Amino acid sequence: xxxxxxxxxxxxxxxxxxxxxxxxxxxxxxxxxxxxxxxxxxxxxxxxxxxxxxxxxxxxxxxxxxxxxxxxxxxxxxxxxxxxxxxxxxxxxxxxxxxxxxxxxxxxxxxxxxxxxxxxxxxxxxxxxxxxxxxxxxxxxxxxxxxxxxxxxxxxxxxxxxxxxxxxxxxxxxxxxxxxxxxxxxxxxxxxxxxxxxxxxxxxxxxxxxxxxxxxxxxxxxxxxxxxxxxxxxxxxxxxxxxxxxxxxxxxxxxxxxxxxxxxxxxxxxxxxxxxxxxxxxxxxxxxxxxxxxxxxxxxxxxxxxxxxxxxxxxxxxxxxxxxxxxxxxxxxxxxxxxxxxxxxxx
Length: 347
What we know:
Elements: H1 3-9, E1 13-16, H2 30-34, H3 48-51, E2 62-73, H4 75-89, H5 93-102, E3 108-120, E4 124-136, E5 138-141, E6 147-167, E7 173-194, E8 199-209, E9 213-222, E10 229-236, E11 242-244, E12 255-257, E13 261-271, E14 274-281, E15 289-298, E16 301-308, E17 311-320, E18 323-331, E19 337-346
Parallel strand pairs: 1-6
Antiparallel strand pairs: 1-5, 2-3, 2-19, 3-4, 4-6, 6-7, 7-8, 7-9, 9-10, 10-13, 11-12, 13-14, 14-15, 15-16, 16-17, 17-18, 18-19
Helix pairs in contact: 4-5
């Protein structure tokens, strides 16, 4: 086979997939995304279990929400990487060269999330999510030989939420608590894709189920009497649990820490049909982010916009009888976020 041609266009391509997954999962919440992530004090749909569980007290008697959210970094580069892989596998060296000429650079990532929330009687909710990450942190050419060396790592977690919310008697405070049962899986492989199209294993392929992990969130809403303002506080993963993958031998892949995050927000509902909100997320760390957003309620149609740490967001909701169709988009350079409500029902 044409080893010299492969050497000429790539001469050994090394791909290293990141083992750092602690904060890359996409958070559900189509309305929240449309409002720039300023949702801690708004928290008025079923996705509040992820943003502030105290918001359950603001819902109807029954709510069901099924949604898809996805984020990605340098998605075009990820697509080019896949095209390159297929071209080398098919020994189409001209196509491989054209793909390389388009430009492939790290980091690249894909982080889709599916979520389902069921809320009952303004107090209880049972929710779940499937959160995954596939990330490429390094891509570089080298002269080690006419092959492609690939090490990939994929991680998925499935948290199940049991949520309870209640208003404190004779006070403007509402408190919500999430108890989360977390399972997951992690996979890693390390192999060469040869110029012949064959593969050669470099390290044993690894797959590990996660040990069962529990975690807790606390949410608070404060709505002063005769005030147009509502304040919200969310403490996520209070005890910073670790999701452990005992069958992974690489120390970087043995566990996934869920860091504690503290978010604070304020919402203003003093103008008819308009909600305005502002949030600060992760306020106890050096990675805090700032969010502002608003919603215009035209009854059957709701329009949303905001700034998610300086990035524009847009969203809309269309009501059809008991159903709502919703979509949102965050316009970040090379790292867009999209969220769709696939089904929403409430009474």
